Amino acid sequence: MNSVKSTWKRLNKALGRSGMLSLAFLVVVLLAAVLAPLVAPADPNQSSLLDAYAGPSGAHLLGADGIGRDLLSRLIFGARTSLLGPALIVGVSLLIGIPLALLASWYGGWVDGVVARVFDLVYALPGLLLAVLTVALFGPGLTPAVVALSIAYIPFLARIVRAAARQQRVSPYVDALAVQGFGMLRITVRHILRNIAPVVVGQAAIAFGYALLDLASLSYLGLAVQAPTPDWGVMVSDSDAMLKGYWLQVLAPGVLIVLTVLALTVLGARISGEKPPGYLRRRPAKAVAAEKNRTTVGAAA
Amino acid sequence: MNAVDAQANAVEVRGLNKFFKAHHAVVDVDFDVPAGGSLGIVGESGSGKTTIARMLVGLERPTSGTIAVTGRDRSRPARGARERGRRARELQIVFQDPYTSLDPSQSARAAIEEVLRHHGRDLSLTQELVDQVGLTERQASARPRDLSGGQRQRVAIARALAASPKVLVLDEAVSALDVSIQAQVLNLLADIRAETGIAYLLISHDLAVVRQLCDTVLVLRRGRVVEQGQCERVLDAPAEDYTRALREAVPVPGWSVNA
Asked: Residue B60: inside a domain, yes or no?
């Protein structure tokens, strides 16, 4: 029990208020996605024309869409595809990007030069353009979109990993390990990677948010997830509902996308060790009291 | 080099040269460290001391010349894990900066155990090493950020000793520490040498430190050996002007900048 309490305390201290809120929100979204069949009130693809564009009610908490499908259930099931795609993109780009970045930072010289230029080259290609090209070649769907975005996201993650690893590489502790006879693989994986893990995880969380947004954009354009699969991006693209004034149909998934990306960005920044902006920081009571004291003393003098 | 020499000398360096592009950093350096002996290399910043240390441990490759430790040549990079391990058990190094020479995510105990395991030594030696360098139980379990400079340097010494080397290179190993801690670490190093018979190669700009720990000394200037010999002889009655100037640059009571 005690250890749970101390872990909670440490997490709270490391992430801060905004980080903890973001984490809580993401846990809820993730749980909803995993437990969708249990928590969704209805079948997301069950249509009933009698309920078309029904407003929020006991039967449909958030109302129903143009062909009478329960909006809340579609949002809950939509979390699955909306989160799975970015997870695949970030996973694949980390799997390829981390080894390349570690190799480049370890060997330096021309190896580093070549890897860094390739990263720069891919980084210069807009991810969405690459995805649109891939879709044009292989047809629309989640797989081509995920493959294209995975490639586009490699430099986004690997450039940060390379920079952080280079900083570790020149640390005397790495020299000390090499003198002890440890090999490159052992030092990079067991020591360097472990020390830069917060940066990698933080950057991955931020990339996840961007990937979600990119996939949603592609789905909105009809290039990634295809209707009738429930997906937040596809739901936002339901312009028919918007034109008819049923704004909740479009606003709800849009808000979910924005909140998820925001939570991931905030959480990522906190994990990387970035301080929250001043207006989000709670100042310790001691500092506030000290400042108050100072002004009193100044006034007396 | 015959077999008797190899037995007698822990380190033998002959005709060592190192170029960094056009800069000739180490020029025809020769020296020996006898088994169980202690050699100090002194010189001002940029004289090539650290470059020699880095070539000895294999972090830099000599441009020419030979380096032999316990009779085995190490002028070329090690080939394969077995060779790397063997070289590690011959010679170890303690770096200058105790703040960056330890993995920040590893406790002292974990760092020592990792080295012991790597060299196939008994993990029960961990406690012995922790005691030998004078760390408490609590310090041994702490991460480097929770230790002071002196404590960190003790951890670095224990980690180096975990490989059971015949030679320990101390690259300005006490210069980042304040004077009282310096004295403690120097005493510790003297005790360890008396106990284990390990040879030291001490690199320092501080003549007092060299005097306390070394039998012989080598004075280096712009990569060249200016003078070498027994510590008392070189430091008390230097034959070369440069050594005299180095000695006179040490502040003593009554010393002033204008003098």
From this structure: yes
